[in-house]
Amino acid sequence: MNDITSISHAGLVTGDGIDRALLLGRPHRHHGLQWLTAGIVLIVVFLVGYSLVTNPRFEWGVVFGWFTSQRLFGGLLRTLELTAISMAVGIAVGVALALARLSSNFVLTAVASFFVWLFRGVPVFVQLLFWGFIAAIYPRISMGIPFGPQFFSVDANTLITPFLAAILGLGLNEGAYMSEIVRAGLLSVNRGQTEAAKALGMRRFTILWRIVLPQAMKIIIPPTGNQTISMLKTTSLVSVLAFPELLYSAQLVYSANFKTIPLLIAASLWYLLVTSVLSFGQFYIERHFNRGSAKSGQMSALARFAEIRRLWTSKEEVRP
Amino acid sequence: MTDVVVEARGVSMSFGLVQVLKGIDLTIHRGEVTCIIGPSGSGKSTFLRCINQLETLDGGYIMVDGQPVGVKIKNGRLEAQTYAEAARSRENIGMVFQSFNLFPHMTVLENVCEAPIRVKKEKREVVRKRAVALLDRVGLSAKAHAYPAALSGGQQQRVAIARALAMEPRLMLFDEPTSALDPELVGEVLDVMRGLADAGMTMVVVTHEMGFAREVGDHLIFMDNGCVVEQGDPKSVLRSPQHQRTKQFLAKVL
Known about the structure:
Chain A is mainly alpha-helical. Chain A has helices spanning 2-8, 20-23, 32-54, 60-67, 70-102, 106-121, 124-132, 134-137, 156-159, 162-188, 191-199, 204-234, 246-257, 260-289, 301-318; strands at residues 140-144, 150-155. The radius of gyration of chain A is 28 Å and the shape is flat. Chain B has helices at 44-51, 83-90, 108-118, 124-137, 153-165, 183-198, 210-216, 234-239, 244-253; strands at 4-15, 18-29, 33-37, 59-64, 67-68, 71-74, 77-80, 93-96, 171-175, 202-206, 219-224, 227-232. In chain B, helix 5 runs parallel beside helix 6 (183-198). The A-B interface holds A 190, 192-193, 195-204, 206, 210-211, 214-215, 289, 291-294 and B 52, 54, 83-84, 87-88, 90-95, 97, 99, 101-107, 114-115, 118-120, 147-150, 160, 163-164, 167.
């Protein structure tokens, strides 16, 4: 600090009562309000922590006993499987719907709009119940010529297992939401990109797959990450179909041993853990699709954290 | 007489109720540089975009290399081309845009290689070699692995020219290629275009650069209000315009 001011002293205007040497420094910052908020937060954290430790009804021993148990772990795997497949179905349906919405074919546009209206308008919980009770509406599902010969016919309950009902309910509902996300992404790509690709003689599919979609991904990925995290937790609704995903596995245990709260905590800890891992993955996917842009405009919290860490460590290294 | 590359007769087009082209008749010959000038809104860019079907005609016809644009005659009936047929005819026409329109998610080299690999299904190594040579020709071989965002406007436009040339087009369309550039970057793009003209490329250039039109152009077309008002040898049109509208326009821009 001293050497900087002494170098800059030469040629400073004096005599008007304003100390130019002080102006060369950076203004002093007041952290009073931050200390106050930190104090309040500390007190609250302490109180919550104290109750977590001292309240015997949390039964932490039971929580961690079941946390790593075979039954919850099996439930977790089924939850992850449901999340992955439902999101895959949702993204595929969403892309198809978005393309239909944006096509010049009026019939396709109308059908896609109707699908989005229907599947976004009915609660996903109700949709899951409908798929679960599909046999009550269509006892047999068959394929063939309408009002003509059937190629095969199968009992609805055999075909639509609780797992398939869950995939259909979650995936189709997700597709309706994803279609809006994909559509926004496609519309965000400058029209000049399509024109340049057309002028080079590219076919429709090449333009979509090589030029428009990769650029749309920048817009599509962040909300899709959000949807995936949301889906992870929405799968817990599937417990209503008696499919043993994470929550239903926990319910099965506590309905037998009555350790309700500890098992709900154990399940919640898994949800939190997986959500954290997903957020982390999202950060890297976003970075991949931001390549080529001079500076990624908006940073997610995680990206900001990484940036701050980078700045901090580089600052440390510069210091002697 | 050199052979005809573009033949336009009675070309008209409207955006909604506004008629932007009102019967354009034009002939463009092989190896010629045709410059189209005129005030903004005169329809010059729209006409250029009609040549490679970025816009659809409402009346008249355009033929490129002896083939009608956007339509085909089948069993004595006029039918619209399919998307694939239109794409195939665009392969032979290069286009350079005012706003460059480079693909921002690809490096310079990938931008140049993309269409020959995806559209013409050429071998990667062959295209790569040609792309490197083209980048060298526009003076940007050092930037092959940079992303467009890291380039200046002039450099981006030169890449865009290389990208169009990679398809080995028989005709190049330039839609105000220097209008979005800072003044000190205009020269480098015009130099590349001049080199292209010297190499015998057939070019149609919509431009506000009267110096370029005078020195490089073989033919000058002045358009106003959707019509071709005056055309001829660039030097004589620029020196002694015949029509009142041409005189007024040139008085403002020269």
